[in-house]
């Protein structure tokens, strides 16, 4: 693809969001965009399955973490979204369950592993910046919107809050329930946890005082994601539902029920208009946030572990339990919506 055509395609993708505020028009244009660009791009990443994918703040880098103990970092072309691997880090000694970028810095990345550590990386370098030892096997991870704190949770339901400037713990909290995914709100003054009782616990931040317990689902509440427009958040559950919540009122306003298996991962598009929901179903559901209307389904060959929308384009990255022709883990990540 020449650079001029790449710019034209990139501009067309951005125009899906910018041209229209009418929901019906947006839906029609989004459907047309994905019908024109249905191709799935396989990106070789690891030797075993990838557990987590994440874009950095400007969309020029993509990272993934894997069962093979590695962290992969990719560069992404601004116009064509072509992806090439820059580094494959082998510093961890156990499964890498999560990767997360600093929301305030496009080159700072953190990875959480079952080797009882998190590692901080500078994407411009080929080495680890710092290792922070933790108390247990780490399974969840988030970076505060202001970039000042990393929260990492382990299998013992202990969450450690770390200062990424000093690499020192700020404080820790142990919970008497199964903690699944964790996140801050976009204003950085509330901290959310999904748990094994189907609830969402909301704490004030930084004092971490309980504010609300929301009875979100009748089964294990697995995933949570904040809407970039600061209007909603979404949760996914073992009951196969994705739920949309009003962030101010803390009430459920809509559910998405096209999946049949537990909803493992969620992601809002950069404009907050679309929600991608992933599970063990052999497709990823993409729906309109405000109406619940179906935009499209992304066909998968295996259960999906992680989904992430590009921060400025309608390109979706995801990681599945794909196998190669010999029934071994493919270790690839995939991109959907790449302009042709």
Layout: helices, strands, pairs:
Blueprint: H1 3-18, H2 23-36, E1 40-44, E2 50-55, E3 61-66, E4 71-76, E5 83-89, E6 96-101, E7 108-113, E8 117-122, E9 128-133, E10 138-143, E11 150-154, E12 158-163, E13 168-174, E14 179-184, E15 190-195, E16 199-204, E17 210-215, E18 221-226, E19 232-237, E20 242-246, E21 251-256, E22 265-268, E23 274-278, E24 283-288, E25 294-299, E26 304-309, E27 316-320, E28 332-336
Antiparallel strand pairs: 1-28, 2-3, 3-4, 4-5, 6-7, 7-8, 8-9, 10-11, 11-12, 12-13, 14-15, 15-16, 16-17, 18-19, 19-20, 20-21, 22-23, 23-24, 24-25, 26-27, 27-28
Q: What do these coordinates show?
A:
The protein has helices spanning 3-18, 23-36; strands spanning 40-44, 50-55, 61-66, 71-76, 83-89, 96-101, 108-113, 117-122, 128-133, 138-143, 150-154, 158-163, 168-174, 179-184, 190-195, 199-204, 210-215, 221-226, 232-237, 242-246, 251-256, 265-268, 274-278, 283-288, 294-299, 304-309, 316-320, 332-336. It has 340 residues and is mainly beta. The strands form seven sheets. A four-stranded antiparallel beta sheet has the order 1-28-27-26, with no helix packed on it. Strands 2-3-4-5 form a four-stranded antiparallel beta sheet, with no helix packed on it. It is globular, with a radius of gyration of 19 Å.
């Amino acid at each position: 693809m020449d650079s001029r055509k790449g710019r034209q395609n990139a501009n067309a993708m951005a125009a899906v969001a910018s041209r229209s505020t009418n929901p019906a028009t947006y839906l029609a244009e989004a459907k047309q965009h994905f019908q024109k660009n249905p191709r799935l791009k396989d990106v070789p990443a690891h030797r075993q399955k990838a557990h987590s994918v994440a874009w950095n703040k400007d969309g020029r880098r993509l990272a993934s973490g894997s069962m093979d103990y590695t962290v992969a970092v990719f560069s992404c072309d601004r116009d064509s979204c072509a992806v090439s691997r820059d580094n494959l880090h082998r510093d961890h000694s156990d499964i890498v369950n999560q990767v997360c970028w600093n929301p305030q810095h496009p080159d700072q990345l953190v990875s959480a592993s079952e080797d009882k550590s998190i590692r901080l990386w500078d994407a411009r370098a080929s080495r680890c910046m710092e290792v922070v030892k933790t108390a247990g096997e780490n399974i969840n991870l988030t970076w505060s919107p202001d970039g000042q704190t990393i929260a990492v949770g382990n299998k013992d339901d202990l969450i450690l809050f770390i200062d990424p400037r000093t690499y020192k713990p700020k404080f820790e909290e142990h919970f008497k329930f199964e903690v699944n995914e964790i996140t801050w709100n976009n204003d950085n003054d509330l901290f959310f946890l999904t748990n094994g009782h189907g609830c969402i616990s909301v704490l004030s931040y930084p004092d971490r005082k309980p504010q609300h317990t929301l009875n979100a689902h009748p089964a294990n509440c697995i995933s949570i994601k904040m809407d970039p427009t600061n209007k909603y958040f979404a949760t996914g559950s073992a009951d196969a539902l994705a739920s949309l919540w009003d962030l101010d009122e803390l009430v459920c306003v809509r559910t998405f029920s096209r999946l049949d298996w537990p909803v493992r991962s969620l992601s809002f598009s950069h404009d907050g208009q679309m929600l991608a929901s992933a599970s063990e179903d052999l497709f990823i559901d993409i729906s309109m946030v405000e109406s619940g209307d179906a935009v499209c389904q992304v066909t998968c060959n295996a259960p999906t572990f992680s989904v992430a929308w590009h921060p400025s384009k309608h390109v979706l990255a995801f990681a599945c339990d794909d196998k190669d022709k010999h029934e071994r883990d493919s270790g690839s990540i995939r991109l959907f919506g790449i302009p042709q």
